[in-house]
Design a protein that fits this description.
With 115 residues, this protein is α/β, with parallel strands linked by helices. The protein contains three helices and four strands. Helix 1 links the parallel strand 1 and strand 2. The two termini are 21 Å apart.
């Protein structure tokens, strides 16, 4: 990234892609400039200690998600916050699938990140 002058990326992941992005945040602090995690769950039994130093994170979970229980999403939000991330966690009235609310919230969050 330094050699080519490329900025650190912002991850955008849904379901397992969001789990991968969450694991990158926790295992490699500083690699990502931020992350939008849609229907993510805690990626590790014992999350590693990380210093996320105000890294912005959007976490969108579904209140009726049959795959990711609300308690798991709350645990992920707490772990990221404890690591120093600036977490915006929204629990939407949806299941595991994507919705127009996800699209709008993610679009607005990304726009604010660029500003």
């Amino acid at each position: 990234m330094e050699h080519y002058g490329i900025a650190r990326p912002v991850a955008l992941g849904f379901s397992n892609g969001a789990n991968i992005a969450a694991s990158l945040l926790l295992r490699h602090p500083g690699l990502l400039r931020g992350a939008a995690l849609l229907r993510a769950m805690v990626p590790f039994r014992d999350p590693p200690t990380a210093s996320l130093d105000r890294t912005p994170v959007l976490l969108l979970s579904g209140a009726a998600d049959p795959i990711v229980p609300a308690a798991n999403s709350a645990s992920l939000a707490a772990a990221l916050t404890q690591a120093g991330a600036l977490v915006t966690h929204e629990e939407l009235p949806v299941g595991h699938g994507l919705s127009q609310m996800d699209v709008a919230l993610t679009r607005d969050w990304l726009a604010a990140l660029r500003a």
